[in-house]
Amino acid sequence: xxxxxxEQTALIxxxxxxxxxxxxxxxxxxxxxxxxxxxxxxxxxxITGQISEAKQLLSxxxxxxxxxxxxxxxxxxxxxxxxxxxxx
Length: 88
Known about the structure:
Elements: H1 5-28, H2 31-47, H3 51-67
Helix pairs in contact: 1-2, 2-3
């Protein structure tokens, strides 16, 4: 079903906000916030049918978690709230 102009505008706005959140978190050195922003951006890509981009973004985020390089404990229930439909 085609999206309305308002829906398209809202999706573009949300995408820009999430991209800004990723950049701000990176500047602040907040790896956890950067991870969540990237995960949310990946979910948005999935919702908008950009599956390839979503897989790429979410796979990288999951890889960083598994490697422990961003200081997130994968067994902590708070840190597993973001779903990852594309495991390695």
